[in-house]
Queue: 3 jobs
Job 1
Amino acid sequence: MPVPNPAVHDEFSYLLGADTFASGRLTNPAHPFWIHFESFHIIQQPTYASKYPPLQGMVLAFGQILGHPWIGVLLSVGAMCAAICWMMQGWLPPSAALIGALLAAMRLGVTDYWMNSYWGGAVPAAGGALVLGALPRLLRRLRVRETVVLALGLAILANGRPFEGAILGGTVCTILLVAYIRRPGAWAEIPGAAIPALAILTATLGLMAFYNFRVTGNPWRLPYLVHEEQYNMSPVFLWQKPKPEPVYHHPVIRQFWAVWDMQMDAVIRQHPIRGYIAKIAFNCQFYLGHWLLAAPLLGLPFVWKNRRVRLALLLLATYLASMTVEKTVWPHYLSPTTGLVFLLLMYGFLGFRFWRSNGKPIGTALTKPVGMMFAIQFIIYVVFACLHLNGTSKFADNRKAIASRLEAEPGEQLVMVRYGPNHSIHEEWVYNRADIDRAKVVWAREMTPKEDQPFLAYFHRRKVWLLEADVDPPRLTRYPAETQLAADKR
């Protein structure tokens, strides 16, 4: 399978973060003509940066230093599978833990968007696995090693998915606190084991505050919040009310935030219960392989008396309940609990051993067929993906082809992007490198002639192109000479 081409708005934002970090900077100065470069899920003021927490961008930056950002994706998915295996070893016998980790690797590590895009959930899933793997070990014995792992997992979640990570981390820490309160003499052991973990968490909070300060000018103000204030009318949480329309400089950006996103918001608020059920069903379909993996869950009632099974169900139920307050829930929103999903699947498989009818082991007889069906499904996924029968993004392929053509041109290039009246708001061409002025190819929005003339004069050393994005196929031609000449005279 080839290295994926970015297509989704979020991917380009994460890649901007990667390019920024790989350049040795935490953020980039605002460009004097930033309005021409406005795009989705990035901020242009007070600095030019991705709106997202920094860890995914740092992982991609590590891959970029090694040769390509996707190497970071590959390594993070491998780390996720290893962390899930370690986590399950704290809950299950070693053989069952290995099988559960292999299920996770086959389901999420080959053909799905976590592996084949730049905006998956592998990083927070690995952090969640560390937190969940430390929990049963700390319930058995309080040791420095597990508290350090717990702190590292919390640090990953805080910089990957802060809200969801806070829910999972808070739940786990509450369970540990209650357990230690009920255990005689446990309080005397806590200071020695907790000090290294507290040092890690303190350093993490300090670095997060420093990053926020460099990007937004305020150590307590996240880039995500700056972006929401500047662009988003529909709030993230359902208890919040929609905000007044801000100033939009481009019709396509207004169409996305003030029209499409607000329409989605209205539907969700009108039918919150139905919307939540649809969100959970969509995520179950993703994690359970179009419901095939739901079969092992039938074995859970047979192991209900096991305290670890009930604890795992409590953790997952608490997390899913917290998702009711979020407007949208993509599969990577649930990524911190990825290990829990596959843990419960393995408990279900183990529960099959106790399913008997007239003395016959019915459940045991079902284990092998279900496993074979999953293996067959996995092979079909791989075949379809390698033969490109599962569909690719035409937009991503077109953008990559035009970008490659421009990279091969001598000198520096400037692309003025023109959208038609029926342009799809989900196909955005205007994304740039971290250092715009030094980039080989610069993508910009065409505005009015009056606004474009000083902009073209600023980039007068570049060869200027016009991209008509909604022609099929997209048409790239030299920019009208008279417009460029007027800019040069200016």
Job 2
Amino acid sequence: MRLAGQVAWITGTSSGIGRAIADRFAREGAAVLCSDIRPEPDPRGFDSGPPTHELITAAGGRAAYVHCDVTDPAQTAAALEACVEQFGRCDIHVANAGIAPAVRDMFEVDDADYARMIELNQNAVWRACRDAAAQMVAQGGGGRIIALSSIAGLTGIDTGVDYIMSKHAVMGLVRAMSRQLGPHGITVNAINPGYLRTAMNRESLDDPERTAALIGSGSLPRLGEPADIAGAAAFLASADAAWVTGVALPVDGGYTAR
């Protein structure tokens, strides 16, 4: 129960990483405001069962859901407002919502594709983190901000150049915010997942040869699971990470150790 008495607002909670983080935080004692464009799990993924907030409350935890398209600044602000109205404050924010493209050559990325990627993976992360930080400063008592980057935020992996740019931008945001928010007792960190068994990787995971290549790219002989990321997030959100800020935490099975 490392997060007992804390309130967390998490984006992209219907499936995958966001669902796992929300569930883990609730089991660690936090009240969780779940937000996404739908409450139900993505049918393309590997999650099943009720919406995340219902999963949490059925297990005795505290959670609520609000619809939030993070590309709409008004909806982002409304989600944070709902968190404060429902639970009284916001102590932890996890900027998780994002998209990943199919593997493609840079010349296949048109301006519309690029604009959508940057808006969702970069601009929306900035707005949500900024708004959460403002709430934490106003209420006092410090806080935790965790942004989901990627191994693509640390390397130049073979995927869309627009995706790689957006995830590198998250790293710049985390480092800059950690410097400015430190005096307020707010830590800001990034988690950089490797290849996971989620809906975002479904196209690759449906190809046995591609799946084998992904498994072979790391040091550990398996793909990651959303629960692996949730464990790292629980650490960064807890008092155990009180003196950890501005860092990139790869959770990638050893991919970036190559």
Job 3
Amino acid sequence: MTLHPIRKKWAIAALALGLTAGIAFADTTLLNVSYDPTRELYQDFNAAFATYWKNKTGETVTIKQSHGGSGKQARAVIDGLEADVVTLALAYDIDALHEKANLIPANWQQRLPHASAPYTSTIVFLVRKGNPKNIKDWNDLTRAGVDVISANPKTSGGARWNYLAAWGYALKQPRGNDTTAREFVKKLYGNVKVLDSGARGSLTTFTERGIGDVLITWENEAYLATKELGPEKFTIVTPPVSILAEPPVSIVDKVADKHGTRKVAEAYLNYLYSPEGQTIAAKNYYRPQDQKVAASYSKQFASVQLFTIDQVFGGWTKAQKTHFADGGVFDQISATPR
């Protein structure tokens, strides 16, 4: 059948319009490779961002998630897991994407506010209801007969924060120094009965398998456990002194450019800093960076004296080399009799 010339022009125009619309409103998929305890956070955040992006651009965006121990997740990306963005437990793991695979620039932390950490957390204890072992502070974790659960610092970012929080506490005691801190942490890990590969695995070991008297964990994990499993089963103990945990985020430049997702990936991370993103973080028991949002949720979090990794350990590069590299302090105290 031959089209009338005018109808033919209309058909061509309609086809061109359809192609243009297809380009303008093409679906985009992002992969966010994250650490263990952020499942609930990003389930909520991804839905909010998808709605925001649809309303703003007309584009449908789907965000896929991968979760595991932060160190393992970083190695997976280095080995070829094509993450458009990473939201990991600590800066050292994201640094590795530059140093070992050149996937991101060296100055990645300068691209977003607060050194690319949109929310913070700290390390607390989760105990069984009634706190039968009377756990109040870090020194209680070294007592005979107290069974401790923590993830493995060799694979879990949260576990490295656990370890450094304990070490920093020991340093801050009267006459505290590296020698006394080493002995304290060695004694504490002598009480650790299970070293899971990630923080969520440790939570499962403690809450579902019923192993241990106390779990050293992320603050948000402890709050989530009491919310989901019931305050009649577990109690949060916030030690007077702990570490400021700063989980950072980054676009994975080479992957995002390969996928053509840079614009959406950058918007995704920036939305974490928006009032809505900060509110979602707070609702999932992360401490928001936005002061107004933080003030609204201040009663949710216990007061705690926080020290930073830069203040006590000279930053992640130094802490990693000293404590967690093969043959480092953690390996040494784990290999020697306790």
